[in-house]
Design brief:
mainly alpha; 94 residues; single chain
């Protein structure tokens, strides 16, 4: 079933058109589809609705049933690994 569309005209400045064209190329879609996606994403942000990626992360975290204490231990371990990795990088000769 086809999605109903309404043709309309807008006046956009050159910088906005170039941005729209870059988005369309990056997403490999038409300018119209890129504009629809950008408007939907902006509307979600303004309305406070979670973005799809944030919603997916929330679902994943719920599915893992990770207890807060376990999450904190994991976070501390990752921080320690990053610090150790960062210190090794500083000791390398330049």
């Amino acid at each position: 079933m086809a999605t109903p569309t309404v043709k309309t005209t807008y006046a956009l400045d050159l910088q906005t058109i170039r941005s729209l064209e870059r988005l369309a190329r990056r997403w490999n879609v038409s300018r119209s589809e890129a504009l629809r996606r950008a408007i939907r994403a902006s509307a979600e942000v303004v309305s406070g609705a979670p973005l799809e990626s944030v919603d997916a992360l929330d679902r994943l975290q719920r599915a893992l049933r990770l207890e807060p204490q376990a999450a904190e231990r994991w976070s501390a371990a990752v921080r320690a690994q990053r610090r150790a990795s960062s210190l090794r990088g500083e000791q390398r000769p330049r």
